Amino acid sequence: MAAPPEAEPTMSTPKQSRAFPRIPIGYRVKVVTDDQIIAYASARNVSMGGLLFEPTPALPVGRSCGIAIFLMNQETGKRIVARGIVVRSDSHGTAIQFTKALENDSRTFLEALVHSHTPEEDPALGTDMGACG
What we know:
- The longest helix has 14 residues, at about 105-115.
- The strands form two sheets. Strands 1-4-5-8-7-6-2-3 form an eight-stranded antiparallel β-sheet.
- The chain has one helix at about 105-115; strands at about 25, 30, 35-40, 45, 50-55, 65-70, 80-90, 95-100, 120, 125-130.
- The chain is mostly beta strands.
């Protein structure tokens, strides 16, 4: 009996191995710690589990903080508010993991934002339709 043929390498895009997909964003972010308030010009990406933003000013790993992501201009009041902890801070950016469940409005806004940037999967085919083309 012949051995099964080896799989040929493909040029497909690798799937993220994270619990939540990250999407790029450019919204302004405010971070509040026990001793400082920092306004960042923009975040780099966000997921249902956390946020990555500019590397400076740096925050120490382990620092608890409050986060506000302003979805539009500040006057509209649309923002995502969360609590988190700094899990990484290096030359690539500061990563904050959300530590508490988001309030209803914040969760709704974040889910809509992530869903609007996440490729749909076709459950009948088990394929990622966003990877086509």
